[in-house]
Design a protein that fits this description.
The structure is a homodimer of 129-residue chains. By secondary structure, the first copy, chain A, is mostly helical. Chain A has six helices and two strands. The longest helix of chain A is centred in the C-terminal third of the chain and has 33 residues, at 78-110. At the A-B interface, helix 3, helix 4, helix 5 and helix 6 of A face helix 3, helix 4, helix 5 and helix 6 of B. The structure holds a DNA duplex (30 and 30 nucleotides).
Chain lengths: 129, 129
DNA sequence: ACTTGACTCTATAGTTACTATAGGTTTTAC
DNA sequence: GTAAAACCTATAGTAACTATAGAGTCAAGT
């Protein structure tokens, strides 16, 4: 299949596919005589692997590491484990931050009386302090 | 004070201060004869306003909007309210996403037996599916 | 008076993960 | 045969900074 079909099948935009290729996350595809990229099911699977990792917010560099690890099936998977654990720690940290944000924003929102002018606005006041 | 002192007092890096100025979040400061930026307490307050907004993950564009609103003290503060509400919605949405991420990552992590090889690694398997 | 070092200046490039565009080529359908 | 659709590469833009290069300014010490 050509890139347009891969794009539709995978749900990745054409530019994103070309971008992943340039970043080394997808192997260089075959080309037609006219230089069009040609993909097979293996390429689709590669792309879906990347997509799944991205949906977990794993960075492109880490995805590359995972791909490299995948290609060494006999090695220990402790590095895979470590990578996922690190990702999990990152997510937990961000969640904690967002929780604090949410609290402050809710607190602020509650101080705003929408009949008021900006002059007396509780939100602006709390941002100023 | 000069930019170095403002940087230390505020906790913002020098480059960030210059960047905020270029983006119009801080008013253009006085200059010494030798073209060094000169700040006063007002500038420090402006910077702290920006910093506080950023700590709430409010985008620079929205901070600019808030600053513009601050300068119209007689207007209704409903737009301020709307902006904060929108920010809150954003944070809530991201929290929901992260919660789902966390669950999947935890689920994945639990399938990894660190004695195993990559070949049999449950994490890689779930990423492949 | 001179030099050294700390501080500042502007302008530019790099970061992440894409998205969008320009300008050109190839293929497909009628 | 031609027009539209799909494809190609290369480059610039996004957000919010951070880092660098190369130059100018200023204060202290000799």
């Amino acid at each position: 299949m050509k890139i347009g079909e891969l794009s539709k099948t995978s749900g990745c935009s054409i530019q994103t596919i070309r971008f992943y290729e340039k970043e080394g996350l997808l192997s260089d595809p075959e080309r037609t005589e006219g230089n069009f990229r040609l993909y097979d099911v293996t390429a689709l699977k590669q792309l879906e692997f990347v997509k799944h990792c991205r949906s977990l917010d794993i960075s492109l560099i880490d995805i590359k590491r995972l791909i490299d690890l995948k290609n060494k099936p006999e090695e220990s998977c402790s590095s895979v484990n470590a990578l996922i654990a690190q990702q999990l720690a990152l997510v937990k940290k961000r969640m904690k931050e967002l929780k604090a944000l949410k609290n402050e924003l809710q607190q602020m929102a509650s101080t705003c009386n929408s009949d008021n002018t900006i002059e007396g606005c509780g939100i602006i006041k709390s941002l100023d302090s």
